[in-house]
Amino acid sequence: MTSEFAVEMRDVVKKFITPEGNELNAVDHVTMQIKNGEFFSMLGSSGCGKTTSLRMIAGFEWPTEGEVYIEGKSTGHTPPFQRKVNTVFQSYALFQHMTVFQNIAFGLEMEGAKESEIKKRVGRALEMVQLTGMERRRPRQLSGGQQQRVAVARALVKTPDVLLLDEPLGALDLKLRKEMQLELKALQQQLGITFIYVTHDQEEALTMSDRIAVMSKGRVQQLATPVEIYERPVNKFVADFIGESNFLEGKIKHISGNEALVHIPVLNAEIRGMPMSNNFVNGEEVSVSIRPEKIRIAEQAAKGEGLFQAKVLTSVYIGSDTHVYADLNGTRLKVMEQNRISRLDPSSFYTKDQVITLVFMPENTLILKKD
Amino acid sequence: MNPHRRSPWVIAATVLVYFFLYAPIVVLILYSFNASRANVKFEGFITSFSDRVEMDGSFVKASPCGPFHWFCDLSKNDDVLEAAGNTLTIAFVATIISTIIGTMAALALQRYDFKIKPFSQLSLYIPIVIPEIVMGIGILTLFSQTFGWLNEALNLTGDARLSMGIGTVAVSHIAFMVPFVTLVVQARLQGFDKSYEEAAMDLGANEWVTFWRVTFPMILPGVLSGALLAFTLSLDDFVITFFTNGPGSTTLPIYVYGLLRRIITPQVNALSTVWILTVFIAVLLLQWLQSREQKPAHE
């Protein structure tokens, strides 16, 4: 390995012309450094620029501005067939007129590998994805999961520096998807190859990734580990996109180090929380975010800092948890409580219009930039 | 009302459609075995064999080939053989060239955006909707004018003079066949996912290898359909060929037309029968090839 980074995008812009003739920055000044051996995900909803970024790394698109580096080398206009990266396509793109063996052997043939060598390596690749014995099948004779494995084997048999995966599990059913997530992760750890994984499924990204780039409108909103992204989102978009959040709007009243006091007009009260940015100023409009599972419901009515009276709107029992929707001075909040104790007694559940006390802990209260 | 019961109107319409489609062909084939040389009425089959043809007026009593008398007669007709040879030569050459051009045009129209693309697409329909006779006159005028100028400018005389012949027929066939091939291949490309080509390039194939190893095999059924359509169009084209042929480049349709103006013998029917069977077998063969390609090979 010549460089610390498997892939580096430096200030990359990709402009497209929309059918209406407008210019659109599909990728808007994206900079990211993907380390060698890392499982890296680009996460975002459709149109956020994640797939375009991946396609620029693969060489199917060229940046309008900026530069993509692979193993420290600038890629410029290098065509896809001269890059040491391989792709697993969303549609798999298996060659229908070839057998499984021929599909996997294709990339090796292009390298000019000898027949005996091809045979050996295809055999090993099939073994790796547990498809030994399927050599002579045609892609359409395989199940979705099997086709997916062939697509992975076909890309990995070339021993790329980086494997690019474009929503590879999108077409599979939930159960198979979860299995494949773990399998792909295991494969990545076993091979030590850099995986760059594009997905719109946050759970998938959180499960598999070492680091995640949350993208929106062509920009990277946050690039961090799954834990950091969930626990320390940098802005309202990320807090809203990853997991669930309750938001309260307010103004910074006082700020000191890693704590800030925010005035919330609808509550006519102050909330203490953790600022998620270094450059807040007094009086700045901010969003305060608290995750549903991080709000506690006090057992007895109480008053004080961080305690608020709310009225139960509905309470939904879903087995492992109870979801309580409560009205806090006109703002609807969601609270999640784990059902740690087995119980049947109806009086132990929340009922409509019951007044409860919510506990907001400062360490669970995140103060966020408004985008 | 029982939804499965067919209305008598539907049955009648079906019967009529099939009748008008196939009755002429059946009659045509039947008449190629006609014992009567006049071929106005079916007078029965030629039933007996003999060393030489025995006639009774216009009635063939016996023939060395028996019922297949007119087919044997046909095979001795050098004009027919020459016309058949011309027809096939023109059809093969024109099909190959128009398939190549048409396929390339379809690929270009599918994957590139260029200023005159709407015009290019529209221009494909012009040769299809324009009356063939107009096109025929147009091509004739173009060729005779151009050849006239060239002959004069280059001082060509005698055999060296440019004139109408197999070449002009083939070129004019290519001209009207290309749009058909393009449209058929385009229809096939409609569902073609570009990620197949991207996958090939991703795996190390350059554009050339990608085309021949991935794109072409995948669009081959469409290309073959286009080629077959072009081939049949060329085989039976009369109008344009009529305007562009010259001495020695008579094709079968032109020849048959010439025969009809003189006398209709069952030889014409025998010729048509052979022709129909050839086309029929070709279509069946192609369909079989295509179905074999698409059917997954069971282990």
Radius of gyration of chain A: 25 Å
Listing every helix as H and every strand as E from the N terminus to the C terminus, the arrangement of chain A reads EEEHEEEHHHEHEHEEHHEEEEEEEEEE
Question: What percent of residues of chain A adopt helix (DSSP H or I)?
Answer: 10-25%
- The average pLDDT of chain A is 92
**CATH level 4 superfamily of the largest domain in chain B:** MetI-like
* Overall form of chain B: globular
- Assembly context of the chains: heterodimer
Largest beta sheet of chain A: what is the strand line-up?
6-7-8-3-9-10
Largest interface: A-B, 29 and 21 residues
**Total helical elements of chain A:** 8
Extended strand count of chain B: 3
What's the domain count of chain B? Answer: 2
CATH topology of the largest domain in chain A: Rossmann fold
Distance between the termini of chain A: 38 Å
CATH architecture of the largest domain in chain A: 3-Layer(aba) Sandwich
Largest sheet of chain B: 3 strands, mixed
Largest sheet of chain A: 6 strands, mixed
Approximate strand percentage of chain A: 35-45%
